[in-house]
Amino acid sequence: VQLQAFGGGLVQAGGSLRLSCAASGRTFSIYHMGWFRQAPGKEREFVARIVWNSGITYYADSVKGRFIISRDNAKNAAYLQMNSLKPEDTAVYYCAGRNKRTGEYDYWGQGTLVTVSS
Prior knowledge:
The protein is mainly beta and 118 residues long. The protein is 0% helix and 57% strand.
């Protein structure tokens, strides 16, 4: 499975961005699609995930009510709509696929930088 994330950029606080993640290869092996982020000097943290088949979602408390994760099974794509962005949302955002067989996020995209200016 190959994942490619894109859509990052520079935005002012309070603005919005939409990240996309395109999946290719053995996508049938993906159970969840998740978004993670890593800010400078910090550890990578979970942001949101969506079950590929059912569409059930789960969010980190820090983004709940502001971010929306979605997927398009026909396009093998996942999205992260980020609204009411804050400077603390600045990070490199990664999409990841959770492997049905291992239960781990075995598949990772290359990351896309989101910078929120105050």
